[in-house]
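Lab manual, section 2.4: Encoding a predicted structure.

Procedure: take the sequence of the chain (111 residues), apply the prediction step described in section 2.3, and record the output as structure tokens. A sample record is shown.
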Amino acid sequence: MTIGKSTNVIPIPIESTIKEVIDLILKSSNNPIDVSINLMLYVMKAQIFNDGNKRTAVIFANHYLISKGEGLIVIPEKQVPIFKKYLIKYYENGTKDIIAFLKDKCWNKLK
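Recorded output:
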């Protein structure tokens, strides 16, 4: 399975592996924004569902953030092309530039 314009081929997801990875992310000692971003990126890259992985991943990450009182991740429409470029780089070589972008441009903290 391929993702968007990425040349990266994703293996068919295995339920037990997905559960294990999500559990590890949730149990990490990272702060809530890092946990939520890691959850989001994992769900996007793992392609758990046939369709809607990016939308589902954002909802999942936001559910986690809200439960911790830490705000929301919202990708502004004008930032979508940049987000997609970072996401493809992440898919292809694991570059973490997308994390700083999400924190700086997409994380809306609760006040």
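Check your result against the sample. The chain has one domain: 15-108.
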